[in-house]
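Might you be able to check the backbone structure tokens below? Thank you kindly.
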Amino acid sequence: MSTRARLAVAGAVAVALMSAAGIAIVVAHWIAGDPRASPPRGLHETAAVAPFVGSREVRVASGDRCRRVVVADTRARRERGLRGVGGLGPYSGMLFLQTTDSDTAFTMAGVTTPLDVTWYSASGSELDTARMGACPHDAARCPLYRSDAAYRFALETPPGAPAPAHLVPCA
């Protein structure tokens, strides 16, 4: 084989290897682009039912009751939240899970009923609460709601529904 032919083969192999590496990087970024956040220690996730099929749920102790809450554990689910949801079905609320402590604000843009939100630390202890007003308008016309402290988890519930002081599993 001539030197020119060997160089052509080596160049083709190098291009193929770089292409494969590039594809691997794109796939890894795509998979990691919307990582699932984990629930507080001790809360066991199971598959959610209607109207949240495809999501996860956890059961949280609230006083002497066990409450089922649907989990928003990816960026896409957190951004969608309860927009367009006509009812919670068997759920007492939606638990938003962050991968790290966060100061991300909540908006009720596109939500037609008011909600209460309770923010929790990484250990599951309550940090702050707010009553959020319905805002069926676009986001530019809706207020933002923030916790006074960085939080790891946030629980949205119907107004006046009891929220647990700590995110712990049912006994």
Observations:
- The first strand starts at residue 46 and ends at 47.
- The mean pLDDT is 84.
